[in-house]
Amino acid sequence: MGRYRRKPTFHLSFYDLLVYLFFLVIIQFSAADAYDPMDPKGNITVKWDIVEWHDDTYTAEVTIFNFQLYRHVEMPGWRFGWAWKGKEVIWKMWGAEATEQGNCSMFSGGNIPHCCERKPVIIDLLSGTAYKDQYYNCCKGGVLSSITQDPSKFASSFKLVVGNAHITNNALIPPENFTLGVPGYTCGPAYVVPPSRYSDDGGRRWQQALATWSLTCSYSQFMASRSPRCCVSMSSFYNSTIVPCPLCSCSCQGLDSAAKCVKPDQLPTNLQMPNSDGTPNPVVMCTRHMCPIHVHWHVKVSYKKYWRVKVTVTNLNYAKNFSEWNLVVQHPNLQSVEQVFSFNYKPLHQYGSINDSGMFWGIKFYNDMLLHAGKLGNAQTEILLRKDPGIFTFNQGWAFPRRISFNGDDCVMPPPDTYPMLPNGSPTCHLAPHFIYFASCLFFFFFLVL
pTM to 2 decimals? Predict the structure, then answer.
């Protein structure tokens, strides 16, 4: 008789499981972070126009464009930097200034350059700057709005005169190693592009730059923050269950994390302990999810032809106010939005006729400032949507969003099978909220697929 061959078994320790899940998460972030399907063409583009050139001195107009649909640059603003290839200096600037003058001892007399640093860092001027030092699109403290939220403030410009220019084969050589100075952004090299054209008389006569360089800076949420910054909870009128944010969505209490935890009945201290980039260190309210921003989606009521949703955004960060904040939601019924109350709204048509995502933001001087943690630290809206025949349903969690982001960063969503179900629904599986159990289920599901 042939010997029976047993099917091989696998013995996996708890430590091996955690290591495997760690690499799985890293792979997921690496693949997803390089491309944003909600904003496939979004980037920050810097254009460097040479408008005058005499011997080794040239004048350039530099413009920073934020071509992202919903991600903006907030305070403390951009800090645009680069490395000169030669011994260039900046003689004068309008609309911006260098953070350091550097060593200009090789220049004598009263003609001293504005900056002699080999790696200058340029910052925008503040509002109220003297008119003689201004330049168009300047003086906003480095803040750039997204192109959707405020098209009048999505660009920033400055002008500079460069001396000791690096010239090769009768061509100016651009700087290298560009940085934007905003967490999460990586800039590529500058390339020669067709010269920019501009008109001073309404299009009757066109002029063009002597040469134009262009470079692109792209965003990575994982590079900006190793942990998420917001989470989503859910509830509905047809189910008494309130689905909370997943446990430890952004960090865990008691762990050595960057966020300091303050209990609701305590007064936080040392709020303005800034990070190396100048941003306040998070001081968040103690919660099970430990996220600075909490978004709650509540299916409020159902009418014959419409249904209504209430969305609440709560700031649990004691150390920071969010100005000109925005919320991006992906849901198939957003193609049938009838009315949005107390928020601005605009659909994002990033894929032509597909209209399943939209951007919400506060109304100017009303709720565009999301205040720090406290009684006033939230903003609310209600959305009235039409029930599309053949599409709309309350079954299987369809009424809840597929994806939500706050200020361009994806929020942690609850597992789909935990969404509030209809009373007559009978979900086949319900994951336990504990992270370890959920991680184990995820691993064995992935193993079976392989």
Answer: 0.81
